[in-house]
Amino acid sequence: MADECDVLIIGAGPAGLMLGCWLARTGTKTRIIDRRATKITRGHADGVQCRTIEIFQSFGIADRIEKEGNELAVPTSRIPDTEPNTSRFRHRVLNQGRIEDFLIDCMKTGGLTVERSVSPLSMEHSDSPTETHPVIVKVQHLIPATDETVDVSSGLYRSNILSDEEFNRSTAKSGKIETIKAKYVVGCDGARSWTRNQLGFSLEGDSANIYWGVMDARPITDLPDVRVKVVLHSANSGSLLIVPRERNLVRFYIQMGTILPGEKLDPSAQSPEKIIESARKILTPYTLECPEVEWWSVYEIGQRICKDVSFKNRVFLAGDAFHTHSPKGGQGMNFSMSDSYNLGWKLAACAKGLASPSILNTYGGERVEVARELIEFDHKVSRLFSGKPAITAESEGVSMAEFQALWVRMGKWTSGTAVVYNSSLLIADSTAAKTELAKNIIIGSHFESHMVLCYADAHAVQLADKLVADGRWRLIVFAGDLGNQNQLQRFNDLCSELKNAPKSPIRKYTAPDADLNSFIEVLTLTSSPRNGLSYSAFPELARPFVGKFRYPTYDQVFSDEVSYLDGGGKAYTGYGVDPDGPGCAVLVRPDQHIADVRGFEDCVEKLGQFFDGFMIQK
Ligand code: FAD
């Protein structure tokens, strides 16, 4: 008898675990399998970009990265690592194993755990229109060999210098076979994706002829800049990237050499000693000793992308299964998690029958475009990293000025905060929206944060912290000056229409017995101070009564006032909204991307049409 679930996730790396968090939090029946008996504990990715920490914050777990990760705030050749005003968080570094731990704990709070030593054998799709769970996957439960000793300091077992055969070699014995029927399957199974191969999709693009070594070590060196992020180009021995890490570790990326076309690196000839020797040549005249290497690996650079990320909107690819590139831009883990952060809430809404499956087209529409930009960026960065430096402006080679300029230009982009999705079923056409009412808000971009004051208790809060990842949409109402009677009336009228008008999406798509804020949560931000209007004078939509005992909510109304201790008072200016003007309403998707901006007068009608495009009325 087959087991049925809404979503089957294949692969529990960063992409799979992030998806698991969404699905667990939204109560979607999910299974997540991984063929490896244990998770990684050391090495691999370590850069955690600002936007990724914002995403972690939406699950309430950013503090764990803030506490353990090392901050990269200092200049690389005098360039700030995080541009001021990029995000309320700063670029940090922490090993992938810990990031995965945080996601695993987060998933557990929603009752989902990884099933390890489970490997898929076959996948079929039923076209029957009556089949509710059309993807049938046979999986095998593996019995790991008891005498298997794993060298945790070597990351070679996941390197792309291994052949498929070497990569797939396992000492585990085959166990029970099980059939799983799923509404949706997501292949988060890494660069050599089994799911992608089953679908007959392939990665296209380049693989460069340069190979790199990487290691996490506690070095002894007279190089002065070993605790700041440094890019070092030597005249003849290649280049090296230094990233200071947690627990006094330092991550080194070291250019090792070139491979001729058709040639293959011998994995057994690679060693930490060889990597250290290459690093010494680049660092000369500085000295380097690494008595303690916690983790190391060797890999080839390549930029590849799979143009197809979905099969019949039932099977999807996310993360490295869909794009691969070099680690030097610090993007892989971040991009992989952003893929599934984009997909998770959409799958949850479709699995529960709340939204039309047509919204799933936006996953490929949005992420393939961004992945193309990533590949283009990585191509440029890798060329500049690996090229020989030009000694003078006239000589041949990589211009250091060009290298620095690219780094500065791409600063915001690499932070992950510059992603803007184009108009679609889930993003309104910006030319038709009322963007003039919120001049600094970009439709399709993520909602940036500003410090505001909670109306009920005067606590200073980051407004974006209220955009919790729970599947709800947010309508952020810039109510303006509510000390002005005319504006107060307009605001009350808007709330009343949103709550009661038959065409209002809140009225139409909130389940009859559910809380008023369960589908769209209205967050109100006034430009007038808290003492101008009492909290109890706000209409019910702004401070609904929720739960079994109809408790009043105290965390949906805010004022753009300066906090005595924490500053703030600049939100209206930051978002480009006139504090004495007519106000506006900004619609934000469950993944924090801005879907629309409306004036009070056209808000209900336009948002009604927007949601009618894909929501299913129960
Ligand atoms: P993976 O992390 O590869 O996870 C795939 C999971 O699927 C694994 O757990 C695997 O066991 C499982 N799996 C595979 N096949 C199957 C199967 N058939 N059945 C079941 N399970 C399966 N990225 C950054 O963002 N920043 C960095 O600084 C950075 N540095 C890096 C340094 C190095 C040395 C390396 C190697 C990578 C680095 N990356 C970096 C890239 C980053 O590690 C990857 O992009 C990221 O791990 C991709 O996540 P993923 O979940 O898509 O895939």
Note down, in words, how this protein is organized.
This protein has 618 residues and is an alpha+beta fold. Helices cover 27% and strands 25% of the residues. It contains 15 helices and 30 strands. The strands form seven sheets. Strands 1, 2, 6, 7, 8, 9, 17 and 18 form an eight-stranded mixed β-sheet that branches. A seven-stranded mixed β-sheet has the order 21-20-26-23-22-29-30. Helix 1 packs parallel to helix 4, helix 8 packs antiparallel against helix 9 and helix 9 packs antiparallel against helix 10. The structure holds flavin-adenine dinucleotide (FAD). Flavin-adenine dinucleotide (FAD) binds next to helix 1, strand 2, strand 7, strand 16 and helix 8.
Largest sheet: 8 strands, mixed
β-strand percent reads 15-25%
What is the approximate shape?
globular
Number of helices: 15
Note the gap between the termini. Answer: 31 Å
Unreliable segments (pLDDT under 50, ≥5 consecutive)?
none
Helix content: 25-40%
Can you give the mean pLDDT?
A: 90
Radius of gyration: 26 Å
Number of strands: 30
Listed once per kind, the bound small molecules are:
flavin-adenine dinucleotide
Structural class: alpha+beta
Q: Top keywords for this entry?
A:
FAD binding, flavoprotein, 25% strand, alpha+beta, 3-(3-hydroxy-phenyl)propionate hydroxylase, RIFMO-like, 618 residues, FAD, binds flavin-adenine dinucleotide
Offer a concise description of the structure.
With 618 residues, this protein is α+β, with helices and mostly antiparallel strands. It is 27% helix and 25% strand.
